[in-house]
What we know:
Pfam families: CP_ATPgrasp_2. This is Circularly permuted ATP-grasp type 2 domain-containing protein. It comes from Noviherbaspirillum autotrophicum. There is one protein chain. The protein is α+β, with helices and mostly antiparallel strands and about 475 residues long. The chain folds into two domains: about 70-175 and about 190-335 and about 430-470, no CATH class; about 340-405, Dna Ligase, domain 1. It is about 30% helix and about 25% strand. It has 13 helices and 23 strands. The protein has helices spanning about 20-30, 30-50, 75-100, 105-110, 115-120, 165-180, 180-185, 195-205, 230-240, 295-300, 325-330, 350-355, 385-395; strands spanning about 50-55, 65, 70-75, 140-150, 155-160, 215-220, 240-245, 250, 255-260, 265, 270, 305, 340, 345, 360-365, 375, 400-405, 410-415, 420-425, 430, 435, 445, 460-470. A five-stranded mixed β-sheet has the order 3-23-22-19-18. Strands 13-5-4-20-21 form a five-stranded mixed β-sheet. Strands 7-6-11-12 form a four-stranded parallel β-sheet. A hairpin with a 3-residue loop joins strand 20 (about 430) and strand 21. Helix 3 (about 75-100) packs across helix 11.
Amino acid sequence: MPDFFDEMYADASSSVRGHYRQFAAWLETQPPEVINRKRAESDLIFRRVGITFAVYGNDAGTERLIPFDIIPRIIHAAEWAQLEAGLVQRVQALNMFIHDVYHEQAIVKAGVIPAEQIFRNAQYRPEMQGIAVASNIYAHIAGVDIVRAGEGDFYVLEDNLRVPSGVSYMLENRKMMMRLFPDLFARHKIAPVAHYPDLLLDNLRSVAPLGIDDPTVVVMTPGMYNSAYFEHAFLAQQMGVELVEGQDLFVNDNAVYMRTTRGPKRVDVIYRRIDDDFLDPLAFRADSSLGVPGLLSVYRAGRVTLANAIGTGVADDKSIYPYVPDMIRFYLSEQPILNNVPTWQCRKKEDLEYTLANLSQLVVKEVHGAGGYGMLVGPASSKEEIALFRQRVLARPDGYIAQPTLALSACPTYVESGIAPRHIDLRPFVLSGKTISMVRGGLTRVALQEGSLVVNSSQGGGTKDTWVLEK
């Protein structure tokens, strides 16, 4: 048997799991030339629509198409129900934690989380201390990264609470599959995801400042050179709201306004896709040309809602991640439904010693890292790479955590040699407002290189449509 959980096949005899059987029977009847034609068609359409991401670094300024695989990842209804319950529980506790950090700090006083882990955290914003935010919601949109390992158990790998991206690919992947293979959707009862923009808009409107009955919502982007600009424009268009940059907004009389051809229009809710540091040059980075001078003062006064709130990053930092199960117990008096991946915190002497002694077997990550950068995958690294990374960890132990190298679950995927298993993860999107809601689906990312565990698009990963069966 393989040393990973196979989403489609149950054992070494290649018996198909029950919820994949209809799809597997269909797949066997598809001639290779038909599949190749469909794959080429999907690439062409994605390029025409402009579904690309910008590349930073050596290839700066170029655009890449994120590879799309036409074999879906299918999740059984009962499995999804457990996953959804765990996600709702987790995001509820994270929102309570962020509110607590910026108000009573009860979890620190109780000794559950060391004070220095919060107040020396680079994502902690003292400017948010004591600010009342609408409905006490900070992480309005959370993208929680889920992996399966062992016998198929779900684990939370990461909580993305600042400006989580990828939902546009979830939506476009579904549209593509429905266009290419409409007969498949007649054979399966697949939960819809197309209503996500409506759900998002309702969620954003629900957290408007007190007394605003018909709020004006905008999506705020850093601009067309941002790697996720397609998504910013896509979501604004799908919600029927304006896409704005900092230069399109201004503060006057303790309110935020948008410049329009008909004159200034007050803005009540800003779905911002800009990092905290660049939001207001008067409060954060003075050299920022992306933000709105005075925005923080309006936010402090409760006259505009920012989604996600300033300072949410204190809860999605990898050094805080190990404490999320404790948050659930502390705030909700419940046992966590979803497990964390076991984590060693290199700031702790014993954990650092263990990490350094086992670098070749572990995944080591920067606590502020993202996108697959700033990490070491021990089993896939050379002795020289491990030696260099050891020096980086020794120079700043509190900047790193370590985790076991999980055998991520795999799903059949079209590659150059044909159909082969490739490792995957899942990013569902959880919306918090008056209630906590989510569509039944998410972004499945796939590591296209054989044996690779890194699914990020910036590292050569691709995406799949995610089907949650309704029964």
